[in-house]
Amino acid sequence: MVEVGMPAANEPNELKEHHTVGNAQLSSLDLLTQDHRELEACFKQYEEEGSDKQALARKISLTLEVHARIEEEILYPAARDAIENKELVAQAVVEHASVKELVAESRRWGRATNRMRPR
Q1: Scanning 66, 76, 78, 112, which has the fewest C-beta atoms within 10 Å of its C-beta?
Q2: Which residues make Cβ contacts (< 8 Å) with residue 28, sequence separation at least 6?
Q3: What is the pLDDT of residues 30-59, one digit of tens each?
Q4: What is the pTM of this model?
Q5: How far is the C-alpha of 95 from the C-alpha of 39, rounded, in Å?
Q6: What angle do CA 19, 73, 118 make, to 5 degrees?
């Protein structure tokens, strides 16, 4: 469930929305940062011998999908409005498309295998 909270300082308007995650109130940027940390931990755990690679692959895929939607719907539009260097945003969008393709590719694999490696 998402609840709107008080705006965080120094963020474009679109990024000021707060989301309730568990008992914490997070801005969109905080949520994206948290996703990055969670994904790093998942990739490290995936590399460990004996880890449940299939469950981790599903978790990574779902986290990346949610993360991508936040970027597409909130971050990139706000960045386009706030940043003068439009090429920087365009480059981020291209990189974002690569991540989305990797997520789609991982879904095509079906069952997780040792082919899934962080890049």
Answers
A1: 66
A2: 11, 14, 15, 16, 17, 19, 70, 74, 75
A3: 888 888 999 999 999 999 999 898 888 888
A4: 0.63
A5: 17
A6: 85
pLDDT the model gives residue 11:
46
Where along the chain do its domains lie? 13-109
CA 50, CA 62: separation in Å to the nearest integer?
22
| Distance of alpha carbon 27 from alpha carbon 97, whole angstroms | 24
Rounded to whole angstroms, how far apart are CA atoms 93 and 23? 32
Q: Which one-letter DSSP state was computed for residue 75?
A: I
CA distances in angstroms from 70 to 44, 46, 61, 62, 110, listed in the order given: 24, 24, 14, 13, 25
pLDDT confidence of residue 42: 92
CA 37 to chain centre: 10
The continuous run of DSSP H or E covering 12 comes out as none
